[in-house]
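Appendix C reproduces, verbatim, an entry submitted by the partner laboratory led by Prof. M.T., so that reviewers can inspect both the input and the predicted structure.
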Amino acid sequence: MSSLLNKNRLTIKRCLVVLAVFALGILPARALESIKLPEPPDTVAFNIQKNGESTPITLRQLEKLGLYKITTPSPFESGQLTFEGVLFSDVLKLVGLEGKDSVVLRAVDDYVQIIPREDWTDGPLLLATRQDGKLLTRRTQGPTRLVYPLNDYPGFDTPIRKPRWVWLIKAIESGN
């Protein structure tokens, strides 16, 4: 009887360990790590189109929101890539678009994507300003690009969301 009781305890302990490991793997804190980097120049990152007006947002304004680092695969590049930037939800708060159902990102090559609210509320999207600690440039698909944390949020790795990795962003506006 006591050996049966010990087996049940062992099974319960194993289940608890598995649950703990699983829980740690899905916490948003694991997806993004807060970091500090040197202040960027006051270069315009993109424009906000709102109420018929265009307002420039600089790299310095963005990075004052707080920098985070993420390592994730990209649907368009090979290997694990490390990006640094700001939370997309914080950017939308900064520019007054956080309450919208969607936003539109326009790239310099006229590529356009609508980013629905559930994307920035289901997980921590990153508006990257740097890769491997270096500021993004036009040559490296910057000065900003939208990054989805695919390692920590596998639900983002879908054919519908892959085209939403927008780079060379020139404008953000309300989608509704």
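The radius of gyration is 20 Å. Additional entries are available on request from the coordinating office.
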